[in-house]
Hints:
heterodimer; A: 246 residues; alpha/beta; four-stranded parallel sheet; B: six-stranded parallel sheet; four-stranded mixed sheet; 10% strand; elongated; disordered C terminus
Amino acid sequence: MRVSLFITCYNDTLFPETGKSVVRVLERLGHTVEFRAGQTCCGQMHWNTGYLKEAVPILRHFVDVYRDAETIVVPSSSCVSMMRDHYLKAAESVGDKRLAADVQDLLPRVYEFTEFLVKKLGVEDVGATYPHKVTFHTSCHSERSLHLGDIPIRLLKQVRGLQLLKLENPQECCGFGGTFSIKNADVSSAMLADKVRTVLNTGAEICTAVDNSCLMHLHGSLHRQRTFARTAHIAEILASTAGDRV
Amino acid sequence: MTTQEQTHWSDRDFPEAAKELLQDSQIRSNVRHATNVIQAKRNNVVGELADWQQLRDAGAAIRAHSLEHLDYYLAQFEEACTRAGGHVHWARDSAEANRIILGLIQKHDAKEVIKIKTMTSEEIGLNQNLEANGIHPIETDLAELIIQLGRDKPSHFVVPALHKNRQEVREIFRREMNLPDLGERPEDLASAARTYLREKYLRIKVAVSGANFLIAENGAVCIVESEGNGRMCLTLPDVLISLVGIEKVLPKYRDMEVFLQTLPRSATGERMNPYNSIWTGVHEGDGPKEFHVVLLDNRRSPILGDAESRQTLQCIRCAACLNVCPVYHQTGGHAYESVYAGPIGAILTPQLHSMTEGRSLPYASSLCGACYEVCPVKINIPEVLIHLRGKVVEEDQKTLSGKFGMWNIGMQAAAFLFASSSRLSLAQHLGQIGQKLVVSKNGVIERLPFMLSGWTQTRDLMPLPDQTFRDWWAQRKPPSDHSPAQENFHVE
Lengths: 246, 492
């Protein structure tokens, strides 16, 4: 299958290893990956912060770049939820029927990365080896917008050497929320403190998720507190093989 | 006569009020404990119902339909209620509602009234207005009594004293009821409240209530409660005045089938409320001799006119969204500086003030979506929060300070970059160079300037990697060199 990778703006800038891992997993499974250089952002930051009319040109750009793509894979559930929950409404809010139709045409071809592996490809074992103690944080959008359910867990359970440790309240928000973490920094920090406590209580070396946004937030605190725990996007775990040094 | 326009709690915005409440470990631990208990009970009794999602769908459909035809159902209610011997009054705003209620109480020369918990009366500042006019309102709901005696404010609209623990309640009762030897067992506190209130039920002849539902077809009014104080107030006095928001009407009696299942389960984790009172007008020799309903608009009509946020009015005030909200868990209700706290308060309050107050509330959410998931009438709270954020931004952009404020400039700049991949790429490269100013000797970013400083107060930030993904891809060898065979991949 020809897979077009939408890396997302913050993964592109801050987490290139996640993108490389997605490429590695998909090519290992025998698929062709393409990367459209024109891509930028899904528009979520603007939309969720209330800059609604500013978000529309960004999603229009996304639709233009991927119009003829066969399948689009995105290693971020929050960006996919932006598309599924808000794109149509955004297009309609500016009265652009053409854009609304394009969105409806495009959306069925957009998949979150783990959703693509399990639901579209029907693969749970991607041939990964990752001999570490790992706990999984259920990001809000993966759970309550994309309804991924146990999809990421099923993938992790097939990883050789991986010891999966149960997180307490896995579905409670880590407090990131995009610009919420800046506008309401104190409340966000308090939410983060609770989440970090549950992560450390598991004794895991690695906390993973399908979103680097939550993980960047968690890592920021884990690092500030000089803890032993680190974060890694699920794609990086699924890309790892026996020969890798992690 | 004194009246006030709208209950006004404070000028503090949410982040400021939250910052102060986050320092109060007693409140935080009380709130966390209470919401966890209610949540667990709610999850149990909701889990028992195989058709829970269908009940949510039905509830949402009935409420949406009622709002769609609100003018019709309100008129039908008025007609049916009047026919049954009730009196219906229409109040455009707080001032009018206060005037009507005060007039009715004065007509009966009452100096005291007993009250059933009603957040709508908090919304219009009824107690303060009655006090200012020499009438003493007595709250009979246990939690509202605690709030009243403690000169406090409700922090939750189902459990108003949720931020107080048992020891704190005992202190208030000991002091205010003059009971120096009062114990701290739940039964000691309940018994003290009972003794304090019983005498008042028997003596005071005018009661003020809210309502959970109005039923259009027969003019009935419904209140569900757990303590029985409501039943006393609804049956013992000679005069009953019910203050009700216009959105609370349901078309038919049979619609109650849905809400009498979803409301108690969502609100208190009970299968049904211990007391369900539904009454129609007045009846000779049974209950109040005079019954008034005051229908309150108070800027609900403009909400009805906004197709995007109309669903706000579907709310049946179960407060499940407060109990599940991770923001509410941290701060409790007082941070919202409003009668209506939590996620629903964050969308309702600014709209009830035509977006002139509570403008920081739509931002008091990480948009985690837990509120929408539990809402028994499926109000898409995150969607409405974003819609209201849009209104706040739009209005800010009309002012000079908003237009040239850091947020607007930052967002406009980001929108400019995201319009083209070459601009984004250039910005990424500039960032990689420019960040040298903020990266510490530990190789991480420990302090950021301006509005970004909130991030680094508790979190480090990794510096931008030397190479973006798009640069890595551009200089990558053709995929043929990365054939699957090279990985020695074998699925067992």
